[in-house]
Amino acid sequence: MASLHLADDRQPWRNVPRRIAEEFRPLVPTVAAEAVAAIRRQIPEYARPADPKYAEVLRDAVEKAIGHFIDLIADPDTPWDEALEFFREIGYGEAKEGRTLDPWDTALRLGARMAIRTFGEHADRLDISRQTLGHLAEAVFAYLEILSAAAVRGHTEATARAAGELHKRRRRLIELLLTGTASPQAVTDLARLAHWPVPRTLCVVAFHERGQSPFRPPALPPDVLVDIDRSDPCAIVPDPDGPGRRAMLATALRDWVAAVGPTVDPMADPSHTARSLHWAREALALARRGLLPADDLVIAADHMPVLTIMRSRELVLLVAAHRLKPLQSVRPSQRVRLARTLLECLRCGFNATEVAARLQVHPQTVRYRLHQLHDLFGDILHDPERRLELEMALHAWLARSPPHDHDEPPAPPAEADVIPLTPLR
């Protein structure tokens, strides 16, 4: 630690006559012993009858503080390095033991009051004026502020280091869980080091920023393992089906497009967490393309038919090339509008009002498009088997059309124009 440099007006000990140092130096052991006794008596955190070493450290700290203060009175240019480093280490140690600096601050001020009282008791014998006593009191509290700042620095360093180490362990734990190959024992061991109780159930949430400004990282609770620095940000959520957990996720991820993977038991099979991530990613990809509603959390388990269809796109697109052929007869600017309208009609049982609400258009617009669709597809729209086939084909075909570009959609796929299956990761 670098030497301390203070302006003269911040060194009130320079106003104390130097002879005072020599007068009070013999009293240092007595004052220190009384201060330690009072601190241990009045501050529970420092009362450790079974730990004599701690009492020795406490006494050493008090003696160093008083002794260095006396040295400053004798010579205001006395170096600070050793004293500041000593009290920085005290702050560091307090943080490592999990304490705040409140007890330490109380102990400092208690010791200061006792030192000032001792000075006052000997003032008449040593012919010390009231003005000099005032300078002494001012100097004592200015000195304590500097020691306190050194302790705060050490406490902050230790806290930051512990937080950084914990953050690293949690990131390693995320990677271990998501690889899908770690043994339950390996997960348990690292989770203990990361201060993360292994839950009975969990799910993985994959999310992507909506692009809103300013950027706000998700405000998830401490029991959620989250890594937003990945190329594909995600979070591992314990007990996702517990009371209030869904609402918590919806609130924390409101600035993100987020998809929730299935709930799994992480200890039953090493691959379960990775599979929850896989389906969260699949649902997120569809939500970002406009094929699943993305205004709220996308729950992968609630969209099993769509996800299943998209896993079989090769077969579905071959069928779509035939079933959606009527759309080739309309202008390109109409194809996606009609396709989306037909998909929502199939979903809503051809209820024009409900379809209009989903598409955010007027019901009459839906009825007009339905007339067009009936002209194009005929009675196939009322065939239950064909309607299921159409819905699957529309999902697969619309997945190839960017949701923001409806004016130049692609033509329905030819039989050879298929999309390869995405391998299960």
Automatic annotation (TrEMBL):
Any Pfam family matching the protein: PucR-like_N
Entries under InterPro entries matching the protein: CdaR-like_regulators, PucR-like_N, PucR_C-HTH_dom, PucR_C-HTH_sf
PucR-like N-terminal domain residues: 13-178
Domain PucR C-terminal helix-turn-helix, chain residue ranges per copy: 338-396
Recorded superkingdom: Bacteria
Gene3D superfamilies xref list: PucR C-terminal helix-turn-helix domain
Region listing for Disordered, in residue ranges: 401-425
Residues that span the membrane, as ranges: none
Designated name of the protein: Putative transcriptional regulator, PucR family
Source lineage: Bacteria, Bacillati, Actinomycetota, Actinomycetes, Streptosporangiales
